[in-house]
Specification:
Structural class: mainly alpha
Number of helices: 6
Strand content: 5-15%
Distance between the termini: 33 Å
Order of helices and strands: HHEHHEHEH
Oligomer: single chain
Radius of gyration: 16 Å
Length: about 200
């Protein structure tokens, strides 16, 4: 638990800035369609984990059967898929993103679906250089944009997240364990996400 405190991760920090209730649905190493090459404890991809009431118990029920509706579902996914993309195809990932967005819409018909896109300047988890980050950002933008364009959904948006200052490989304090952001790194990302969501939802700044 020392290095896995979700209350110090960006979803919690964003919720705190917006004074909002939040549910964090995540699984380390899980991709929308391809889990991390280095290993993932889940035996299925995130597309199948997302609706579970308890991630490790597939028979425990589904969020798709509940009436509760959030104001927004915020999606930041694709990083684990990305490591397999060069061996697969854009189309396979685009189709997976499209199917996932459709599943979210089925589960949450009244909510905004806000897909967060990485910028070329803010280095993400396990990325080793700015050049690699630029490639990652371009691939995610291309695939999520293509997926969203195939859906006629007026409550679906893409938001480019570009913190200033960005998370940097040259700032040791931005990094925690296993190539992931520290609390400081998460706070930088949250500082850029919160105003984007506030503007989109009409909650003010």
């Amino acid at each position: 638990a020392r290095h896995q405190d979700a209350t110090s991760a960006w979803p919690s920090l964003v919720a705190g800035r917006l004074d909002a209730e939040y549910h964090n649905i995540s699984w380390s190493g899980s991709g929308v369609i391809w889990n991390a090459e280095g290993g993932c404890t889940a035996d299925v991809p995130f597309h199948d984990l997302f609706p579970r009431l308890l991630g490790s118990l597939p028979g425990a029920g589904s969020i798709e059967s509940t009436d509760w509706q959030p104001d927004a579902v915020v999606v930041y996914l694709g990083g684990n898929d990305w490591w397999s993309l060069h061996k697969k195809s854009d189309e396979a990932l685009i189709e997976a993103f499209q199917a996932f967005l459709a599943r979210v819409r089925t589960a949450r018909p009244q909510a905004w679906i806000c897909v967060l896109l990485p910028s070329a300047s803010c280095v993400g988890a396990c990325i080793g250089s700015l050049e690699e980050q630029a490639s990652f950002a371009a691939d995610m933008t291309r695939c999520w944009t293509a997926a969203s364009s195939r859906l006629s959904d007026p409550l679906l948006c893409l938001e480019l997240v570009s913190p200033q200052p960005p998370c940097s490989l040259n700032v040791a304090e931005d990094w925690g364990q296993m190539g992931h952001w520290s609390v400081q790194g998460n706070a930088k990302w949250a500082s850029a996400v919160a105003p984007l969501l506030a503007a989109r939802l009409g909650w003010g700044s």
